[in-house]
Amino acid sequence: LQVPTKFAVASGGKRLRPIMCVYCAEVVGGDFRDAKDAFLALELIHNGTLVHDDIIDEDLFRRGTPSVPVKFGGKRAVLTGDALLSLGLKYAAKTGRPSIVDWLSEAALKMVQGVALQTLYRRQLVSEEEYLYINYLKSGSLFETAAVLGGLMVRDDETVAEDLAGFGKHFGNAYQIRDDICGVYAENRDDELSRNDLLNGDISLPMIYALDSDRMTEGDRVNLLSVYSGERESIDLEYVQEVYEETGALERSIGKMKGFAEGARGYLLRFEDTEAREFLEQLINQFYRDFSPADRLKVII
């Protein structure tokens, strides 16, 4: 399993969650090296869940390269995901902090619940509230854990942990909405094939807002729902972009994303003004405040 495991871990991405973990350690007065075992555990568990997600969703690509099940086969992919989860637990144990193990275990369970609900509701219409709950389980909970782990490795303080959790949760909720938007504005053909929620039958916030809009024509509604339900297997992404823009769904989704981002900033401002806090604020600006789908900014999966 050494080859597929290395492939899964080294297949790209900007390591946003471990970066958040180490900077949150510095935000509370520690050193980034204090969080080494915690962020290794976090990243290994995250990558393990991604491998399993690709098996469930039958994704062809991950981060612009062939997914583990495509490259190594389904059986080896299952074992690869299991190996990564096991390695994550090993590094969690090395921290010597039961609270770290508890947070990671809870986050892993929430991610599984999120994927289970997403699979259950595939090709079904859900409310904004249900979407946001799945959103938190799938994405917000992992960012929440990343932020808390960094702080706990330095200070075992409940108030500090709650503030970092609020920061990470809101950042992660905004991140998933951003990912929804960028799935419609795919950078390249690989992204389009692997991350198109409409074709996969996965609900997205732009889709929810478009269907809720009184500016949606009956023809556009039929076209989108025929693809979402699986009756049709293709659709022009530029057409989908036009529908989302004309119905106000895109603008509304960006507004919701930025609302979560500002919530994350509010929690972050409760900490002392340091270079680490400044960096995390810049991260919020880069990903959310200055975001424009037309720029086709690279998305971390």
What do these coordinates show?
- This protein has 301 residues and is an all-alpha fold.
- The protein is 72% helix and 1% strand.
- It is built from 15 helices and two strands.
- The chain has helices spanning 2-9, 16-27, 36-57, 68-72, 74-94, 98-120, 128-152, 158-184, 189-195, 197-200, 205-212, 218-228, 237-246, 249-268, 275-289, and strands spanning 61-62, 65-66.
- It has a two-stranded antiparallel sheet with strand order 1-2.
- A hairpin with a 2-residue loop joins strand 1 (61-62) and strand 2 (65-66).
- Helix 1 (2-9) crosses helix 5, helix 2 runs antiparallel to helix 3 (36-57) and helix 2 (16-27) runs antiparallel to helix 15.
- The longest helix is centred in the middle third of the chain and has 27 residues, at 158-184.
- It starts with a helix and ends in a 12-residue tail after the last helix.
- Mean pLDDT is 90; it is low at 188-194 and 297-301.
What's the gist of this structure?
This protein has helices at residues 2-9, 16-27, 36-57, 68-72, 74-94, 98-120, 128-152, 158-184, 189-195, 197-200, 205-212, 218-228, 237-246, 249-268, 275-289, and strands at residues 61-62, 65-66.
**Global mean pLDDT:** 90
Count of helices? 15
Q: Strand arrangement, largest sheet?
A: 1-2
* Largest β-sheet summary: 2 strands, antiparallel
Share of helix, binned: over 70%
Radius of gyration: 19 Å
Distance between the termini: 23 Å
